């Protein structure tokens, strides 16, 4: 194993949790989530030699991961027929475990999965606490545009969460 | 549920169990660029296999030597044109896709490259028009009873054959492109528009 490959694996190991979170935002079943996870790791590896360290590795990685997730192709039909009753896809850390939170986490993911790919990316940056300026840089759009789009995405997500929560409680 | 609570939920999530990094699964293709590359590779190899078969098959037809020779030269020229265009396609696909750019630039870049590919593809199909016309001339000339046609009948039959062939080439080319490439281009186009 070369030193570059070793360095890559060490860095990926630190960030694989967040890559898996992105996969879960974009795909709604375990197989597709695993496929997207692998694809992101592959794309990051392909571009790894171009990483110059001008930004944080995580910032650079998020950009590649989301750009990959946005154009990831999976059959829409297949997705529509799959039911997600598997709560274990979305787990709360053991030391903070709370059943209600775990249910909410599931509702959150299921609602995010219904957004379009661009809105999902914006919500990801929001959840990761990116500022409007950072978000705009990552997305390659103006700050004003990023803020407007984020607000719209948040509105859509709010509606979806409310629908999903009332469906779950019914 | 308040949206601000989502951040706290997001941070409480347990992601200690992630999939194993597997080189096997990475061989599966899900990106549009990779799918197009794969389709193009298949198209190239099927054309490269088909053309020598045509070159050989011509010798089984009972036609005068000179017509056989003309067809052989035409098919060989078509092979050269095919190799030229596919080398362009492959070069294009080696150079595109940069996921390290900002999302909008990355998508726009991908979309423009797809559009460029579309233009190459159109030129590729148009380059077959003169070959097709030459083939119709050779076929018409090689049919003995066509020499007894009146000028009017020859003109009508010749023009109808060419028009029919060109329409078939147009509709088939259009269907082929949309089926194998167009759906990916539409998807990327929509994403670019969403980000504008």
TrEMBL record, chain A:
One of its GO terms (molecular function) is DNA binding. Residues 109-157 form the RNA polymerase sigma factor 70 region 4 type domain. Transmembrane segments: none annotated. Residues 13-78 form the RNA polymerase sigma-70 region domain. GO terms for biological process: DNA-templated transcription initiation. It holds the Pfam family Sigma70_r2. PANTHER family: RNA POLYMERASE ECF-TYPE SIGMA FACTO, RNA POLYMERASE ECF-TYPE SIGMA FACTOR. Belongs to the sigma-70 factor family. ECF subfamily. This is DNA-directed RNA polymerase sigma-70 factor. It comes from Epilithonimonas arachidiradicis.
UniProtKB/TrEMBL annotation, chain B:
It comes from the Bacteria. The chain crosses the membrane at residues 44-61, 67-86, 120-140, 152-177. The lineage of its organism: Bacteria, Pseudomonadati, Bacteroidota, Flavobacteriia, Flavobacteriales. Keywords: Membrane, Transmembrane, Transmembrane helix. This is Uncharacterized protein.
């Amino acid at each position: 194993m070369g030193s570059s490959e070793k360095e890559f694996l060490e860095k990926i190991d630190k960030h694989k949790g967040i890559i898996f979170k992105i996969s879960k935002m974009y795909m709604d079943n375990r197989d597709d989530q695993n496929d997207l996870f692998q694809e992101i790791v592959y794309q990051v590896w392909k571009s790894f030699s171009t990483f110059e360290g001008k930004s944080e590795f995580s910032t650079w990685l998020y950009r590649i991961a989301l750009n990959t997730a946005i154009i990831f192709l999976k059959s829409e039909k297949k997705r529509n027929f799959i039911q997600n009753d598997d709560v274990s896809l979305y787990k709360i850390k053991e030391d903070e475990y709370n059943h209600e939170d775990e249910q909410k986490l599931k509702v959150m993911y299921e609602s995010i999965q219904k957004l379009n790919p661009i809105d999902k990316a914006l919500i990801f940056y929001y959840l990761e606490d990116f500022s409007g300026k950072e978000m705009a840089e990552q997305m390659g759009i103006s700050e004003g545009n990023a803020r407007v789009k984020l607000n719209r995405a948040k509105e859509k997500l709010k509606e979806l969460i409310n629908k999903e929560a009332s469906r779950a409680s019914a | 549920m308040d949206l601000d609570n989502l951040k706290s939920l997001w941070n409480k999530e347990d992601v200690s169990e992630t999939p194993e990094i597997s080189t096997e699964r990475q061989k599966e293709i899900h990106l549009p660029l990779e799918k197009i590359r794969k389709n193009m590779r298949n198209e190239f190899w099927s054309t490269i296999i088909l053309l020598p078969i045509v070159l050989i098959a011509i010798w089984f037809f009972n036609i005068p030597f000179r017509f056989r020779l003309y067809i052989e030269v035409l098919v060989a020229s078509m092979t050269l044109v095919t190799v030229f265009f596919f080398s362009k396609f492959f070069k294009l696909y080696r150079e595109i896709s940069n996921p390290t750019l900002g999302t909008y630039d990355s998508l726009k870049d991908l979309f423009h490259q797809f559009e460029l590919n579309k233009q190459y593809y159109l030129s590729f199909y148009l380059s077959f028009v003169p070959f097709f016309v030459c083939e119709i001339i050779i076929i018409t000339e090689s049919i003995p009873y066509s020499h007894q046609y009146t000028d009017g009948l020859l003109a009508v039959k010749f023009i109808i054959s060419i028009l029919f062939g060109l329409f078939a080439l147009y509709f088939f080319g259009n269907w082929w492109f949309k089926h194998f490439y167009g759906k990916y281009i539409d998807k990327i186009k929509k994403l670019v528009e969403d980000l504008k």
